[in-house]
């Protein structure tokens, strides 16, 4: 009887130890997955902050007109491409904009929040270049 109790205690100890190790391993993997997601979200928030700053610049300095020459002169890491096959009205133009260089995160810390959008920013203008609509790509 004494041997059975010792064996039972030993098996219980091994079972609890195994359960604890499995739980520890699962926790580490889950934390790693969450940290990767957090890094992605921070990158998207920085992108959103850069677009907000750019939009303030467009509306303040250019009266709401998309002047690519001025934008590219002041922001050399911007890439603006005209989207040809967009479903828009005649005379309008549809642009996709993104940054080709990594941002300095500390410059945009004021915008960090839980609102996270994609890396691409889209601009719809009329024939004169006046911006009609703008939005982010949703992930």
UniProtKB/TrEMBL annotation:
Keyword annotations for this protein? Answer: Membrane, Transmembrane, Transmembrane helix
Query: Which segments cross the bilayer?
Result: 12-31
**Protein's name in the database:** Uncharacterized protein
Write down the species: Vibrio penaeicida
């Amino acid at each position: 009887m004494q041997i059975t109790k010792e064996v039972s205690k030993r098996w219980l100890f091994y079972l609890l130890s195994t359960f604890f190790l499995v739980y520890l391993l699962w926790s580490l993997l889950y934390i790693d997955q969450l940290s990767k997601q957090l890094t992605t979200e921070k990158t998207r928030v920085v992108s959103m902050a850069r677009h907000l700053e750019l939009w303030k610049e467009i509306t303040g300095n250019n009266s709401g007109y998309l002047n690519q020459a001025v934008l590219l002169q002041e922001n050399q890491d911007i890439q603006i491409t005209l989207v040809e096959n967009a479903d828009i009205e005649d005379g309008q133009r549809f642009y996709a904009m993104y940054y080709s260089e990594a941002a300095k995160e500390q410059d945009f810390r004021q915008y960090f929040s839980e609102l996270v959008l994609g890396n691409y920013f889209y601009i719809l203008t009329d024939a004169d270049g006046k911006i009609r609509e703008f939005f982010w790509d949703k992930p």
